[in-house]
Each structure stands twice: as structure tokens, then as C-alpha cells.
Design brief:
This protein is of the alpha+beta class and 148 residues long. It has 3 helices and 5 strands; from the N terminus they run H-E-H-E-E-H-E-E. A 5-stranded antiparallel β-sheet has the order 2-3-1-5-4. InterPro entries: Nucleotide-bd_a/b_plait_sf, RBD_domain_sf, RRM_dom. This is 538_t:CDS:1. GO terms for molecular function: RNA binding.
Length: 148
């Protein structure tokens, strides 16, 4: 075989190898681009899910703080309630000492106990922490529920 042809054949084989390598590089780059697009999409989905979770948690926190909770969430039990203490008196004194109350419920005006429903958790916790309030010389006990 002619040395010139042999050299040409070698160059042709080298060029084919270069073309194959370039094709593999292009395919590899395309795969990287597709992987990056999938990763970006997954990241966006994760961000969306986390945003929804954060919103849910913020709503839960608001409820715990009493910024939208139900009427009966923050209930305390009042003991040693004398007949001379009306629900209105209890409410006025409890609100002055601790904060806003939805209502006071007393099953029977003669019963020695009642329930106070605070509007938010902070005031509810303050009342529980103090544990009592003096109303007209009567020491009213504040607890989280009746003793069983």
C-alpha cells in the first residue's frame, strides 16, 4: 500500500474517532442539561411543598397563640367559687388580672366551681401559672381541670 494512502487512512480513522468522541461529549452535555432541568423541577416542587408546610405551621402557631382558635380551646377550672361571686364578677376580675375571656360558665349558681374560657393561650397560661385570684376576699383557685 502506498504510504500516502496509509497516512490518509490513518487520518480518516483519527477523524472518525474524534467525531465519535465529540458525539459522546455532545450526548453527555445533553444528558447533563436534562438532569439539571429535572433537578431544578424537583427543587421547585420541594420549595412549593415546604412553603405549604410553613403556611400550615404558621396557621397552627396562630391558633396556639389564640389568633384564630376555637372558643373553648383555653379553658381553666375555677374552684372555691362562692355564691356571692357572679359569673360577671369572675369575668371582670379575671380579665383585669390576665386578659380577655370569651365567657364564664357555671353549671349552677350555687356550685363551688366554674369554667373560664380565655381568648388566647398567653393569658390562659398566665392564669394557670398564678394558680389563684383573690376576688372580694375569696381565694379562687385556678387549675387546668377538676381533680379526679
Amino acid at each position: 500500500m502506498n504510504p500516502c494512502c496509509s497516512e490518509l487512512q490513518e487520518q480518516l480513522l483519527t477523524q472518525r474517532q474524534i467525531n465519535r468522541d465529540q458525539s459522546r461529549l455532545i450526548d453527555g452535555k445533553q444528558q447533563i442539561i436534562e438532569d439539571q432541568a429535572r433537578l431544578t423541577k424537583s427543587q421547585q416542587q420541594l420549595i412549593d411543598m415546604m412553603y405549604e408546610k410553613i403556611q400550615t405551621l404558621e396557621n397552627d402557631i396562630s391558633k396556639l397563640k389564640g389568633e384564630g382558635g376555637g372558643k373553648y380551646e383555653f379553658k381553666v377550672f375555677l374552684r372555691n367559687v362562692k355564691p356571692s361571686l357572679t359569673p360577671k364578677m369572675l369575668k371582670i376580675h379575671l380579665e383585669r388580672s390576665f386578659g380577655p375571656i370569651h365567657e364564664i360558665s357555671q353549671p349552677d349558681p350555687k356550685s363551688p366551681y366554674a369554667f373560664a374560657y380565655f381568648k388566647n393561650r398567653q393569658h390562659f397560661l398566665q392564669a394557670l401559672e398564678k394558680g389563684n385570684i383573690n376576688i372580694d376576699g375569696i381565694n379562687v383557685k385556678i387549675t387546668s381541670g377538676p381533680k379526679k
